[in-house]
């Protein structure tokens, strides 16, 4: 049966082209299929595509198009993304890069004010300087051209219809609008103000049916051309909006036209006989996830899994060591030398692991010195406007995609029914660190800012897909994603139980521990070991994961901290 899936999938991939592919009996999907995403409208749109003979890449286009409509605070047409793809026919895992690029007119001082001081939070995030070339849709166009099954234009039908008919504003969107809408100055852009607020200035409430004809129109243009935002009338609207205050940006039509998404081998490393694959730079996922697990592979967890504070201690220390390296070395490797091979070298990670003592926290974690360049430590904060989805189709192909407009509601500027990103604030605000060392992640023309997005796919001992996971959450994404991996792979939990575990984020010398599902003994036990703990309530994870069991059954998990679901195709 495995062999017949292989042959059938080769057939369907060979047929991938702009032409519609007939779903004959021989190309019929063989196994179960599932979509896990942050909003049930998006999940349904993805399932509908799978039902009509689409594959995981086709479904990704539909899911993203709907998320941009119903969850505009997190991701959308105006943002960027990384998509990690497992191709069942070849067993290969590739990573599509749709990260936003800086305009050609920027300098390393992009986020410094006239006096040379780093801009304040809202000043930077809402400035024209923050908007990078939106890459998500062009990247999906590239992934579809390589692997899609259904015609590109048909993938937008569900989202277009929903934009025209209107959707009920979700509880989370309503709550964010009412708590943060005005605070983050979403009402300062006239288009955003008219869309997200009623005439009297009240933010849209839960259940309000919001239509978005401008979005429907944009989708119609994208249905004809995946680069519709990068050329023509929509590109002009983007450039004009960025050229407005506050702090007009340098983004030009030429910058948009020059943008190219790219595809790479995913960064894959062995972990206890499996392969862990995530996105390469400028994402830090491929490095950080594999560094955490590579360090952990030098230890055995006790059988008590999440009930043993000693096991959490190991996960915390591995995170601290990996984050320290990630903060110093990861950036856009098209522009700076990233010593990725040195950072993930098994012997280097063994040396990092040797810094961990059972039962005692490391005092003052610092970056290591792998083979490669030296850069200063970047402590850029990343925000909470992001979404993750995982998809498995009936042929056995899998997608893990993390997608973002960066901050909540991105840059707040709205054109064509969607929000622009503020992704360039993921660059270091200061181009040098406190010691004057240049930062790998300093802004530069055409450069892509470092991301924490960690869409991850795990292959089993036979090299077949077994788990897809990922999360939003700024640089805590790495910690959230690692938790789901350790929960499923090491502690034997279902994806849902792993996602439900408390969030524990260990970056630097402070470990944040989320309140949800927390064992009251955990914090005192960690403090006993010397960990400095900060309890957190507002948790930003949004893990959406799918596991394939050895009998082929799919098991999904959806983060209760957000409002999405994991649903199997019936
Ligand atoms: N912009 C961040 C990144 O690309 C993600 C922000 C978030 O998760 O909210 O890493």
Describe the protein's architecture and organization.
The protein has 570 residues and is an alpha+beta fold. The protein folds into 2 domains: 30-258 and 385-426, no CATH class; 269-365 and 451-553, Gamma-glutamyltranspeptidase, large (L) subunit, C-terminal domain (Serum Albumin, Chain A, Domain 1). Helix content is 32%, strand content 16%. The protein is built from 18 helices and 20 strands. It has helices at 2-14, 40-51, 56-70, 121-125, 136-147, 157-165, 171-180, 190-196, 213-224, 233-242, 253-258, 285-296, 309-329, 340-343, 346-353, 477-489, 495-500, 522-528, and strands at residues 34-37, 80-87, 92-98, 167-168, 209-210, 262-265, 267-271, 274-278, 385-392, 398-406, 414-415, 418-419, 456-459, 465-469, 504-507, 510-514, 533-536, 544-548, 554-558, 565-568. It has a 7-stranded antiparallel beta sheet with strand order 6-3-2-10-9-1-20, with helices on one face. It has a 6-stranded antiparallel beta sheet with strand order 7-8-13-14-18-19. It has a 3-stranded mixed beta sheet with strand order 15-16-17. Helix 12 (285-296) crosses helix 16. 58% of the residues are buried. The structure holds glutamic acid (GLU). Glutamic acid is lined by residues 382-386, 404, 406, 423, 426, 451-453, 472-474, 477.
């Amino acid at each position: 049966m495995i062999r017949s899936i292989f042959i059938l999938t080769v057939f369907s991939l060979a047929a991938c082209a702009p032409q519609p592919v007939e779903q004959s009996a021989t190309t019929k999907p063989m196994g179960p299929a599932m979509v896990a995403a942050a909003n049930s409208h998006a999940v349904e749109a993805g399932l509908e595509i799978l039902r009509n003979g689409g594959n995981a890449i086709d479904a990704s286009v539909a899911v993203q198009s709907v998320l941009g409509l119903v969850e505009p605070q997190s991701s959308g047409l105006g943002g960027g993304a990384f998509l990690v793809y497992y191709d069942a026919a070849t067993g290969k895992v590739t990573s599509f890069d749709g990260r936003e690029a800086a305009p050609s007119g920027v300098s390393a001082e992009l986020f410094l004010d006239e006096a040379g001081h780093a801009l304040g939070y809202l000043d930077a995030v809402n400035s024209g300087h923050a908007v990078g070339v939106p890459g998500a849709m062009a990247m999906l166009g590239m992934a579809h051209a390589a692997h899609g099954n259904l015609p590109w234009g048909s993938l937008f039908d569900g989202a277009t219809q929903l934009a025209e008919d209107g959707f009920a504003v979700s509880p989370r969107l309503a709550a964010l609008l009412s708590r943060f809408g005005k605070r983050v100055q979403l009402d300062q852009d006239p288009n955003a103000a008219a869309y997200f607020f009623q005439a009297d200035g009240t933010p849209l409430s839960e259940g309000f049916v919001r239509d978005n004809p401008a979005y429907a129109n944009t989708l119609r243009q994208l249905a004809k051309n995946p680069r519709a935002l990068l050329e023509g009338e929509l590109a002009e609207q983007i450039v004009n909006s960025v050229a407005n205050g506050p702090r007009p940006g340098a983004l030009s039509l030429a910058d948009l036209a020059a943008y190219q998404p790219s595809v790479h081998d995913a960064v894959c490393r062995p972990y206890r006989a499996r392969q862990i694959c995530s996105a390469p730079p400028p994402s830090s996922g491929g490095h950080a996830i594999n560094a955490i697990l590579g360090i952990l592979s030098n230890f055995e967890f006790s059988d008590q899994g999440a009930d043993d504070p000693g096991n959490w201690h190991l996960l915390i220390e591995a995170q601290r060591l990996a984050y320290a390296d990630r903060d110093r070395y990861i950036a856009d490797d098209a522009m700076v030398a990233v010593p990725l091979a040195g950072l993930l070298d098994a012997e280097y990670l063994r040396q990092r692991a040797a810094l961990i003592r059972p039962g005692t926290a490391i005092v003052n974690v610092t970056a290591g010195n792998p083979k490669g360049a030296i850069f200063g430590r970047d402590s850029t904060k990343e925000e909470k406007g992001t979404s993750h989805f995982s998809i498995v189709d009936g042929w056995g192909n899998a997608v893990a995609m993390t997608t973002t407009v960066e901050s909540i509601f991105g840059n707040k500027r709205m054109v064509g029914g969607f929000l622009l990103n503020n992704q360039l604030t993921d660059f270091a605000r200061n181009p040098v660190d406190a010691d004057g060392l240049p930062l790998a992640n300093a802004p530069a023309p055409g450069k892509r800012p470092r991301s924490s997005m960690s869409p991850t796919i795990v292959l089993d001992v036979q090299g077949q897909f077994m788990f897809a996971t990922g999360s939003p959450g700024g640089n805590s994404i790495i910690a959230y994603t690692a938790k789901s991996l350790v929960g499923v792979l090491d502690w034997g939990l279902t994806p849902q139980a792993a996602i439900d575990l408390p969030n524990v984020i260990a970056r630097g010398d402070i470990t944040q521990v989320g309140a949800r599902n927390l064992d009251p003994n955990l914090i005192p036990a960690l403090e006993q070991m010397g960990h400095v703990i900060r309890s957190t309530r507002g948790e930003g994870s949004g893990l959406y994961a799918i596991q394939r069991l050895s009998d082929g059954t799919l098991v999904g998990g959806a983060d209760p901290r957000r409002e999405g679901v994991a649903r199997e195709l019936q």
